Amino acid sequence: MSAVNGSIGKRELRVGIVGAGIMGADHVQRISTRTAGATVASVVEPDRDRAMSVASTAPGAQPRVTLEDALEHDDLDAVIIASPGPFHEAAVLTALDARVAILCEKPLTPSSEGSRRLVETEMAADRARIQVGFMRRFDREYVALRQLVESRGAGELLLLHCAHRNPSTPPGYTESMLITDSVVHELDIVPWLAGSPVVSVEVLRTRRNRRAPEGVSEPQLVLLELANGVLAEVEISVNLGFGYQVTTEAVFEEGVAQIGRTAGLTLWSAGSARVAEHPGYVGRFVEAYDLEVQAWVNAARRGGIGGPSAWDGYLAALASEAAVEAQQSGRRVAVRSEAMPAFYG
Amino acid sequence: MSAVNGSIGKRELRVGIVGAGIMGADHVQRISTRTAGATVASVVEPDRDRAMSVASTAPGAQPRVTLEDALEHDDLDAVIIASPGPFHEAAVLTALDARVAILCEKPLTPSSEGSRRLVETEMAADRARIQVGFMRRFDREYVALRQLVESRGAGELLLLHCAHRNPSTPPGYTESMLITDSVVHELDIVPWLAGSPVVSVEVLRTRRNRRAPEGVSEPQLVLLELANGVLAEVEISVNLGFGYQVTTEAVFEEGVAQIGRTAGLTLWSAGSARVAEHPGYVGRFVEAYDLEVQAWVNAARRGGIGGPSAWDGYLAALASEAAVEAQQSGRRVAVRSEAMPAFYG
Amino acid sequence: MSAVNGSIGKRELRVGIVGAGIMGADHVQRISTRTAGATVASVVEPDRDRAMSVASTAPGAQPRVTLEDALEHDDLDAVIIASPGPFHEAAVLTALDARVAILCEKPLTPSSEGSRRLVETEMAADRARIQVGFMRRFDREYVALRQLVESRGAGELLLLHCAHRNPSTPPGYTESMLITDSVVHELDIVPWLAGSPVVSVEVLRTRRNRRAPEGVSEPQLVLLELANGVLAEVEISVNLGFGYQVTTEAVFEEGVAQIGRTAGLTLWSAGSARVAEHPGYVGRFVEAYDLEVQAWVNAARRGGIGGPSAWDGYLAALASEAAVEAQQSGRRVAVRSEAMPAFYG
Amino acid sequence: MSAVNGSIGKRELRVGIVGAGIMGADHVQRISTRTAGATVASVVEPDRDRAMSVASTAPGAQPRVTLEDALEHDDLDAVIIASPGPFHEAAVLTALDARVAILCEKPLTPSSEGSRRLVETEMAADRARIQVGFMRRFDREYVALRQLVESRGAGELLLLHCAHRNPSTPPGYTESMLITDSVVHELDIVPWLAGSPVVSVEVLRTRRNRRAPEGVSEPQLVLLELANGVLAEVEISVNLGFGYQVTTEAVFEEGVAQIGRTAGLTLWSAGSARVAEHPGYVGRFVEAYDLEVQAWVNAARRGGIGGPSAWDGYLAALASEAAVEAQQSGRRVAVRSEAMPAFYG
After folding, report:
1. Is residue C275 less than 8 Å (CB to CB) from chain D?
2. pTM for the complete prediction?
3. What is the ipTM of this complex?
4. Which CATH number fits domain C137-285+316-339: 3.30.470.10, 3.40.50.1220, 2.30.40.10, 3.30.360.10?
5. Contact C255 A264 (CB under 8 A)
6. CA distances from D79 to D74, D92, D100, D295, D316 (A)
7. Which of C271, C272, C276 sits opposite D271 (nearest CB)?
8. pLDDT, mean of residues C34-61
């Protein structure tokens, strides 16, 4: 990208999608069928057959086995990194080196050290290029709740009750994934809602769901203490069967607000009134993903980012490490506090 | 009852229950287990075994085959008439003659002529003794809606959408019973809510539910025009299977109000959020029946009535006859208008 | 458009927006900021200042005073017609002549004769190019309700209760606009939901809202009889103040379904639980408009249409004329029935 | 009461109400106007004017300054103790000595030692006479939730989220009253719902509501660990202003259930849909109180109790003491465990 100030002007953003799993394939569809100003130029995936299969769904997209190949041949302006977490750091470094815009799915990296390295590499360049895929910040109800907090329309925020419920876990699921796969979303969204960072984490156990895989005891209750005194508790339950449910109840000085309730067509039949729950995260957050990617594309075309930064990803990684330690130790664990560099201000 | 002004003072009201079907047996339980100031003295039922069986559930209650027997032997202060409609007129006349307090289940009588005769007989005595069992007037949500109408808190009432939905019909059900069994409730409650009498009725048909018995085409849409210009439409559907549902949506000049929605424990399981619907009218209106009977007992002990009068029953009978004619003719039918006698003022 | 079969291949669709009022400006934003595969090439508006102002919000869009100018200079593949209804016919004819793809806001034309002429002109060409802007067909809840009808998951559809509620009317509002501006949406969506055309219309009046402009008596109740026997009633209320609300309750043989209820953040404060209602149609149907336009763009790039056709617009115009006649006469009015030409099959 | 087995047979239960504050006066109304089989014989209150004023609302009730007076003169069968907590022990002992039926409002006594003494005194007699006023056990939704737990209809219960929200605190409110006045209800209902006793308590603080009185930091989060491993957390917030709200969300192995949501008339006006929240506990639990007192009267007439026993009151007192200690110390505190005597089996 040789454009002045990083802007590509009126031209469409040429995007490479790194990773052709469920999420990557979903982004290919999003970019090619419902995002303005962007086109899928490459699908990068080490499994060449899968790369070809996914690329064939987007007119003009090239299947590539490595990101380097894509950067060399496809004139990319931007990449969406949707490969597994352990591969994020290398891909982001390659993309930073190529000076393209980056949307990296969460977590930015599995460890805070990796995120710290990305932050430092990014800060050595002229401007921020990394946006992290915490899509909840684009969900209309989360946005409405944050506005209520900021407006103090019901007084100061005092307490948050969050619930994160999944129908079932995939093979190979381990207990720390309760934090790193799921609660990591709350580790970003809670400070964003409350306007204050997490300072400590504690994890409580309750009676074990026998539907959980061997070696995993869940549900768990994760308690987050924020710098402004607000307590947030996060119920994480991942084998409840009935659907994918993410809710937040916020207690203010003069009221209570709730988001995330099941809505839509109500059917009275067979003795009850029923509303379908979302079966998975794709449906639950489809609009948030669309808004997130559109905001990123719009910002990337102007040479910037339009959502959570690498610094936000780093803070979430720090809190996630503390939460895993709290989960294993049964103790309250402090979260390292760091002042945000002016680069991200 | 020889008491001055009809008051029985501190003594408990001795009540005879006429009719020991589902409704009569329910009233026996209500009076004997959750009504203050009343006791069941007689259970009157031509089927002697059934009379004995139901009477045995209330300590001190005597089984009787005729109302005359009960009046002669059981020192009754009051009767609840829960026998089939065609028997109401004779029972009410007998009770009026004995000068006891009367709660007569709806309809007061099947025909307006019968109700007219009861009104005239009652008016020949010193005071009103007949209360008609339109229990919806005691339902908390109907009361709240009426208060909203009267307070003009959302401006003038303009339009009412009512729905009356039953799970299924009993053997022997005929089409006119849509009006005389079900819509008759709306023929009382709609003018009560709107503060204005029904002046015309029209009945519209829609696609027939194949679950309806032979010869019955339902759902139907009953259109009521009130004297103050308000239009009320009543959907009557009696074979929907899923439960018993009675709802009202009221359109005001500055808003819309709705009552009757399913509430209670919400269960998220198997892909949806569910709230149980009431299976029948007993559960749906249990509190309204309790409040109705308590209000009647309290008023009867003081020598009066505490709810809809024989005049209200007569007006409902007039509207019901017009509605049946409208149902059969397909035409709009005027409802005879009569000024309320001062006796009922 | 010289492409084989009308397909423009991988290239972006160059769209001219005709009319730069609220709706036109909204489409300019939609196309330029959140629609894949399309770009705004022209903004056509007789008020040149307004044309320039709106065009300036979309990179590369040219302000034009006439559609002919835009077609001559801007290499258009497609037009969205969002000018006032009386101008639709001429604009659509010009666009048909230019063989570009057309999305025409409702109503297709104010009179059925105009729509009939458009249908005939279109049928003289090789394929359908006109899509009509009945965006409700793209609303997720309407789609879910239609699927429930088609699947017979609750038995056959029997009856529809529709409500269309607006906060207030603009200056110059006349009574027939209740039909032509608002109920026209139900005149399309009701047959679409029920899978059967409207065969007659009747309009009932209720007590007048004093907030309505002089000479307008509303709310009204519009009764639609469908060919399959289903009755649909539409409450139209346009001065209720509280918000924009469009709901449908569908009665099936074995249940009842409802769509359109207020959802989102619930706030308990000051004595009640509250959920914000949509203030206007833009917010209520924002996602439906987005999906509609995206579906149209995707279809247009392949040379077809992706939603309701000119024939659907013609049927709605026929029903709308009957409804206005019913409104004025107080009588039930038959809707002319015509077999759909194979061209639209 | 000289009756065989304590049964008073068909006669009405003669009840003395001890304490004529808000709760006592409410019980006078309940017994005299909507409870079957009972009559208010005495109103006992040291403030003679208040005793007379409240007694005058119930026909036949005598004002008394001491319970001993009432027992001597009014032929009492039963007492409801609604005086302040510190006076409960002496009143219950007097009533036990008189061998009358007892309904004692919560807490049974402020300290577990007092409750222990009452349990021991009661066990020295022939049968249980003390029922404790944990009325939530009679609330229809709590009953439904307990049935769901017991039926395992959604699998085993795993976790409970409870919220107890009051609009404001009275003068003289101290922090420990969060436990002793409010959370004490959950200390009874949580083990009742889960079928397992509380084994430890911990109290967490969050950001303080500035509406709380000086010296009181609330909301607080009370964590209860049950013997079966279930964790229950109770949010206690007592100055939220908007109303009185008591909710429970229960996480099961295969679903989630919720009770306590605001229901009733929904009003769409001024931009939102609103449902009124209960202003106080009387309205929220009016039906539960009625059912509780009726169950107690019915049981007392047969010589027994019909709800939570003195042993339940003692267990709640033990848990309450532990919770106050946890609140003050900031530590997790074990709750003393004791096997239930066969007397209460």
Report:
1. yes
2. 0.95
3. 0.94
4. 3.30.360.10
5. no
6. 11, 9, 7, 14, 22
7. C276
8. 95
